[in-house]
Structure formats: C-alpha cells, structure tokens
Amino acid sequence: MLAALAVAALVFTHITVRGDLGELLPHANDPAARLVDAELRTGTAASLLLLGIEGAPAGTLAGISNRLSDRLSHDPGLLFVQNGRRLVDPEAARTLFAARYLLASQGAEAFSVIALHADFLRLRDGLASSASPLVQQYGMPDPTGALPALLGSWTGGGRAILRDGVWFAPGAAPRALLLARLIASGTDLPSQARTLGRLRSDFHAIAGRTSARLLVTGAPVFAEAAEAAVRRDVRLLSIVSALLVAAWLSWRFRSPWVLAAIATSVAIGLSSAALAVQLAFGFVHGITLGFGMTMLGITIDYPVLLVGHRKQGEPAPATIRRIARPFTLSVLTASLGLSGMAGSRFPGVAQLGLFAAIGILASAAATRWLLPGLIERAGLAPSYAGDPGRLDNIERWRRWRLWGVVPPLLAVLGVALAGGPRLDHDLAGLAPVPRSLLALDASLRAQLGGPDIGQLGLVRAATADAVLQAQEAIAPALDALVARRAITGAEDAARLLPSAALQRARQRALPDDATLRAAIARAADGLGFTSHAFDAFAADVAQARTRPPLTAGELPGSLLRTRLDALLFQRDGAWFGPVIPAGIADPVAVAAVFVRPGLVFIDVRRTTQAVVRGYTRQAWPFVAGGASLAVLVLLLGQRDPSRSLRVLAAIASTLLVTLAALVLSGTRLTLIHLVSLQFVAGIGLDYALFFARPQLDAEERARTLRTLLTCNVMALLTFSLLCLCRTPLLREIGGTVCIGVVLAMGFGFLFAGERPAYAARSLKTDGSA
Amino acid sequence: MTERPLLLSTVLCVLCTMPCRADETLLRQIMQRLAARPSGQAHFSMQKHLSSLAAPSLSQGTLSYRKPDRLEQDTTAPKPERLLIEGDTVSIASPGQPDRTLSLDDSPALRILVDTLRGALSGDLATLRRHFTIEEDGGLGRWRIVLRPTGNVAAQVVKVAYVDGGGADLRQIDIVQANGDEQRMAITP
To answer: A103, A183, A593, A604: least CB-packed within 10 angstroms?
Structure first.
C-alpha cells in the first residue's frame, strides 16, 4: 500500500500540469481559421494590455502615467508601452515628413491656387499668433497640411484625448490611459504572468500615487484570471471532497483501514491515468486532472463494493467470487464506454477519455488483486449490513416499477415539446473570466480604440504590396458602407501606407516646379509674405516627384512600425493584411465586400464555434462506438437478454430524465454535458449491474442496497462540491452529474433489481382481478 | 609634505574663482531680485520680424507670471488670444477656434523658447544655464543680459537673446532665432 502511494507521489511530482484553457480547445483546419486561431493565441490580440489609472485628480494621474510609462519602458517583458506622450518619435516623423506627398491622400486640387490661398491665409494668422515658432517650423514647408493628415491616420482610432500631454478617457471622471504589448505570446502564460506581476509592483512602487488605482485588462489578464480560478477550484475541490468522503466512509465502516484500502486503489488508478496522459500528450491539463480525478470517483466505489459485500470473517476470495461477474462487467463496460472519448481529436475530450479509461482499469485491477490481502488482515467488513426485515418494505416499491416508465416517457415528451436539446458550440462562455473584468475591458477598449477583433476581413497575397493594392481596391466599397452607416469605419494597412502603385500615381499628380511656383505666387499675392517664404515647400514637392515610394521596411522601429506590423505581416510564405471594420451594423453587407479572390471574411466567434461543432460531430461516432461495444460486452457477459434489457432500461431512463432536466431548465448543451452524461451512464451501469445479480438471499440484497447507497452518497458529496466552483465548466459538470447519480440509484433499484416473489404474485392477482 | 599640495590647490582655487566671482556678482544680484517676486503682471507690446513675412507683426496685451512655472500671455490686439504655459503643457486659446494643447516634450524648439522666456521672468539661472552661456553688462540700475546657446539643440533654435532691465524690473526681451526670425517684447509694469 505504501508502495502504491509512493508511486503516486512520484508520478504527480513529475507530470506537467497546465492550466490554460486554450490547450484544451481543438486546433483549426482551414488556413483562414488557422490564421485566426494562431493570431488569437500568439498575435497582437493575445499580448496587448489595456491600462487605466483612476481615483486621483487629472494632474496627479498624468504624472503617475508618465512615471509608470518610464518605468515600464525598461521592462524586458514588454515590447512597448505608450501613454500618449511622444506618440511619434522624431526619426519616424522625419521619415513620414520626407514622404508626405506620396503618403497623404491629398489630391492634385490641394495644389490649386484657391486651395493654396486658403492655406496661406491660415498660415498668416498662425504666424501672427503665439504659436508662430511652430507655424514657421512645421507649417511653412507644409502649407497643405499633409503631415498632420498623415499623423492623424497613424495615431487616430481611439477616443482618447490628450490632457497634460498624456491620454485620458473622455468623460468627467479622470482616467489616464496606457497601451502596452507583452513580448511573450499567448502560448507562454507563465512568462506573461511574470511580466504582469512586475507591471503591478512597478505601479505600487510609484511614490505619491496616493489613492490612484491601476486597471489592467486584455487577453493576458483574462488568461491569468482563468488560470487562477481553475487552479483554486481544483485545489479546493480535491481537498474538501477528500475530507468529506473520508468522514463519510469512516462513519460507515467504523475503521480507518477502509480508507487505506480505498487510498491504495485510487492512488494506483490516478497515477496510472496521469502517467498515461502525460505519455500520450506530453502534459496533463489542470481540468483533465480536476475532472478526471472526480470522474475516477467511480473507482472509489470498487473497494467499497468489495468491502461492503464481505461477510464478517469471510475469506476475501469468496467475496470476490460472489461479486466477480457484475464487478468485471461494470469495469469493462465503463472503461470501454469512456475509451470512445480518447479517440476524439478534441484534445480536452481525448485527455479526459484516456485518463478515465486507464484510471478505471488500473484501480479495478488493484482492487481485484492487491486489496484482498489487506482486507482480510484488517478484518474489514461492514459493521452493519442492513436489516433484511426492512428490506421487504423497501423492495415492495418495485411493485410500482411499471410506473417508473412514466418519468422517462415524460422526459422524451418534454424534450420534444421544448424543441429538442439546444446545442451550444461556444466554449468561450465556459471560461472563468469574471463579468466585472469583461466590462472593464469593453470600456477601456472603446476608450483606447484597441482592436476588438470579432469580425474582420483578411487579404492574402504573395507580396506586401499586393496586399496593399487589394485593400485599396475594396476601399471605395468600405467607404460606401461608412456612408450608409453599415459600419463606422475600417482600419487596414493601406490606410497607413499606400501601395507603391498608388504612391506613384500621387507622384504623377504633383504639379511640376514651374506650375507650383506660379500657383504659389498667385495664391500668396497681397498676403504680405516675402517672395522666398514658400521656397522650402516648393523644393519638397519637387523632391517628392522623383523619390522612390516608401516601403514598410523603411519605417524605423517604433510605435508606428508596431502598428503597421500588426496590420501587414508575413506567415507561411504569404502576406496577410487584416481589414478591421468598426461598429458593424450590417454584417451581411460587410461580408459581401470580401467576396473576391484572395479575400475572406472571418467571424472569429463563428469560426471557433464551427471548429467545436466539427469536433462534436466527429466525437459522436466514437461515443456511439464505445457505447455499442459496452452493450455487446454486457449481453455476452450476462448471458441473460431480459436481465441486460432491464439494466439498459435503467441506464436509458437515467440519461433521458437527466437530459430532460437540463433541457427544461434552459441549459444549452455543450460538449461538456455530453461528457458528464457519459460518466452518469458509467455510474448507472455500476449500480444496475449490482442490483441485477440473480438469485440472492435477502441478506445479500440488503448488503448490496446498503453498499450502493454508500457509493451514491459518496458520489453526491463529491459532485455537489463542483456546483460551488467559480469555473462555469466545472459547475455544469457538477450539476449534471448530481442529477444523474440520484436518478441512476433510483432507476437502478427500480428496473434492474429483481421483483420480490410475493410482490410479483400480488401484482398478478391484481392483474387477474 | 601634506600641507604643500593642499596649499597649492587652495591658491589655484582662489585664482580660478576670483575673476568669475567678480563677473557674476551683478548677474546673481539681478537674478535674485527677479526671483524674489512670487508673481507679477505687466503690459506688453510685441514686435515680430519673421523671415516669411514682409512686414513686422505687432501685438499687445497682458503678461502674468506666477511662481514656479505658470506664464500667461493674454493678447488683446490685434486678435484676442490666450497663451498659457504651465509646467510642461502649452495651451493656446483663441475665440472661434478649438483650443490647442501641446507638451513641451513634443517640441525641443518650443521648450528652449519657453525656457528662455520663463527663465528670464523668474530669474531661474539654472534653467538658463542649461541652454546658454550668460554675459551681463551695465549696473544694477540699468542692465543687459546676453544669452548665447551652448548646445547643438539650442543653437538650432536660438541665435542670441537679450534681456534688458532696471533694478528688479524686466523691460525688454529680444530673441533672435536661428532661422532669422526676431521677436521683441517690451514690458511696462
């Protein structure tokens, strides 16, 4: 026994446990979905942090925002941090300024006499004002305002306003805003968590931050919260349920040794299961472990069934002989039924299936071959095996067995009336991210204009420039959508960096030097400018007419470059450019824009759902295969078709009524419920097989009833705890299984057990009367 | 043995600092007087000679200052406009136009111009010394301070600046920019 525990300890210190929900989700198949999948896991969306600072006067917040930004800019875990200050570094500004007449979308009419005259009037006013040094420096060489227009499209998007030189949220309550991106991708949660920890302690180390609070959201924070919740739930769950089960069994058998017997078999089951999953997948997910451990609650039943059926002083092999057939059948059918899940390509389901099937087989083997010695030496047997006298009263209930058919029939009717079970393929709702965090994220995202990539178009082409050209081709269609309010705007790389072709077209549209100088002279006439006031302007335009188009590679690495890189990137040899529409009111019209070769419209939510739906559909044959194999084994093993039929009727009724309870309570069924139902079927099978044993004396029947009742309470103790979890996933499992095991006990007793002889007789007389 | 180098260095020190200290006495006195006032208000009239405009532009209004870093220039003619510099933030408000706010961090040129103006008004010798070498002329009754840029950045913005005054009062600030633009501000209390 000690050896078994030692092995278990060794296994659990050496397996890799992971808690990130993404690992349990399936990987997508088609290229677009795979790209979205990869972007969600590793792209900007998975590493962007949105920060807010509030709870102090605006001036204080601006100071804190600057100090935090200074500290964070040295953090090795962050790619960048931005608080609105120095949005455009001088080097990037020089690059954009030099290419301004090729990048800005100003037509040739901007250089007409009329347009220039209006610009010159504005400049003269500016020169007379206090801002004259700036007007002289930036305005005079750029009267048409090409650079401000350019910077507007590069730095715009959000609703953040500049106050004291940093970003603030619009609205009365002051809230300073910052944007940061982690270097670690969504697949490296531990590293992301470390950087988040440093970020928070950096904030707390700021002197004079007084009452100011830091708000942080974004995918990394969600992942952190989800992982923490799952971890906390799993830990709490295993400790409390172990304590409860131990208390219950000690009271039931009046001997601590029964706990030792159970610990031995469960430890062997769990460690074999974890080892098998580790070997097959390379890691064991926290949820697999949590749910799998609870699922192996069925294996706690095995030693209990053995000890519960032993008569005082009886040699253990004799007990085993009495229960061998239902025991073996139960183990085989349960593990076969669950092994179906192991064939699924949905990693979460497959891990769980393998874990449960191996765990059941290993702990059954331990019960069969290891425990008898221990049981005999410790003299384990129920102190009280039930009163055969009271048994009659209980078993008399089976007279009404035919009425037992009513609930399952009502269940079928109820489900049919409710329009059948509603399937939900959205697993996101099951992730344990607190509502308050989601609300905070939505508010910061709206204020900062962070990308909310729910629906997007994707352009795919051989070169970066071809992507830009394709985006330029659909720009008029998108503008038309904006005009009729189907969307509020759209963001893509081409709006920041025009294609080479467009830049050349703009180049060709620029006036030649003589024309421009003549236009300048006429436009400036009578405004009081000196004759050389606009020489720099004319020279820059002349230079723009010959310079090569600006490419993405020429932009210096900076925040601007980061922004472009998120919108134009290379993957697997092809170039991609997302087109992200904002404020979509008419998704159909938006999708229609992308019905062209090389373009695709992606609804991220629906894509993920389609993937899950695909795998659910694919899981059915495996589940059905496992179930039919289990039925076959049952028929062969029992060699009594009517008895097998009663066992199956008990299980079917349990499942139908549980399903009806879920459907009628308005639950949308997910893959998780399917898994839980399979587990309920396993437990139901266990109960029904033991109730269905033929030719037993009253004493043995009382023992069986009492033992199964012990098992049933044990299962309820464990699974009712799951209902208290913060993780919706575990909560759903708990609810389903709790309903299921109670019903399994009821239907097993009613249908699978033999009708007492006198009850049958009285029913017969009733019938003939 | 140990006394000789000590003595030598003391002598060297005295020799070195003597002339400087003599020169600086006036500057320090001027600056201390300027710095002694916590706030002040005065009328100004400004004449700007810009290289891009043929004629100088004229304006006038009120100038108010409050320690340590608030400077408000309220132009009344020819067009009303309010320029407020507080800390690192500059905001310009004029009727019929949206307010403009910018940070001194965004423009090194603007920072140097603001530092010149604010440094002179507040008698902040440290700030002025960050960008300029300083010479002074005259006596306490009537003085002139000449600022010449030291660093590369300052030299790109300012060619030379003159600050004139008498006693504790500033009379005139002239800034000649590197691009040839000139700004002359006369101050009357």
So the answer is: A183
How far out from the chain centre does Cα A2 lie? 40
B110: nearest CB among A124, A133, A529: A133
Instruction: Flag if A85 and B78 touch (Cβ within 8 Å).
Output: no
> Which member of B52, B92, B177 has the closest CB to residue A129?
B92
Q: Which residues of B touch A124 (CB under 8 A)?
A: 53
- Chain B interface, Cβ < 8 Å to A: 48, 50-55, 57, 59, 73, 75, 78-79, 81, 83, 87-89, 92, 94, 100-103, 105-107, 109-110, 113, 177, 179, 181, 183
How far is residue B161's CA from residue A724's CA, in Å, rounded to a whole number? 75
Question: In A, which residues are within 8 Å of B105 by CB distance?
Answer: 85-86, 165
Q: Which residues of A83-100 are buried (b: 16+ CB within 10 A; e: fewer)?
A: bbbbbbeeebbebbbbbb
Which residues, at least 6 apart from B180, have a Cβ–Cβ distance to it below 8 Å?
Answer: B51
**At which residue do the structure tokens 């800390």 appear?**
B87
Nearest-CA distance A218 → chain B (Å) = 29
**Average pLDDT estimate for A422-449:** 73
Q: Check B101 against A131: CB less than 8 A apart.
A: no
Structure tokens, A329: 């059948």
The answer to whether the Cβ–Cβ distance between B54 and A162 falls below 8 Å is no
Q: Residue A5: is it exposed, middle or buried by C-beta count within 10 angstroms (0-12/13-18/19+)? A: middle
Q: Pick B50's closest partner by Cβ from A127, A163, A165.
A: A127
Judge: A165–B106 Cβ closer than 8 Å, yes or no.
Answer: yes
Is the Cβ–Cβ distance between A494 and A471 less than 8 Å?
yes
Tell me phi and psi for residue B88, to 5 degrees: -100, 5
- At residue A184, what is the residue type? A
Give B181's contacts in chain A (Cβ within 8 Å). 132-133, 136
CA dist., res. A37 & res. B101, Å (int): 42
Structure tokens at A667: 């639950």
CB contact residues (below 8 A), chain A span 30-89, against chain B: 85-86
* DSSP character at residue A511: P
Please give the model's pTM, rounded to 2 decimal places. Answer: 0.62
* DSSP codes, A65-79: HHHHHHHHTT-TTEE
* Res. A158 pLDDT band, cuts 50 70 90: low
Residues in chain A: 769
CA–CA dist A462, A410 (Å, integer): 60
- At residue A506, the pLDDT reads 92
Average pLDDT of the residues in A522-543: 91
Please give the structure tokens belonging to residue B119.
């440094």
Contact assignment for A125 to B179 by CB distance below 8 Å: no
pLDDT bin (cut points 50, 70, 90) of residue A369 is: confident
Residue of B nearest to A138 (CA): B107
Phi-psi sector, B107: left (phi>0), alpha (psi -120 to 50), beta: beta
Give the separation between CA A528 and CA B50, rounded to whole angstroms: 11
Would you say the C-alpha torsion A645, A646, A651, A654 has a positive or negative sign? Answer: positive
- Would the CB atoms of B51 and A124 count as touching at under 8 Å? no
- In angstroms, the first-to-last Cα distance of chain B is 61
User: Using H for helix, E for strand and C for coil, what is the string for A107-172?
Assistant: CHHHHCHHHHHHHHHHHHHHHHCCCHHHHHHHHCCCCCCHHHHHHHHHHCCCCCEEECCEEECCCC
DSSP B180: S
Q: At A433, is the secondary structure helix, strand, or coil? A: coil
B99 pLDDT above the threshold of 90: no
Point out the residue among B52, B89, B109 whose CB comes nearest to the CB of A127: B52
Residue in B92, B105, B179 closest to A130 by CB? B92
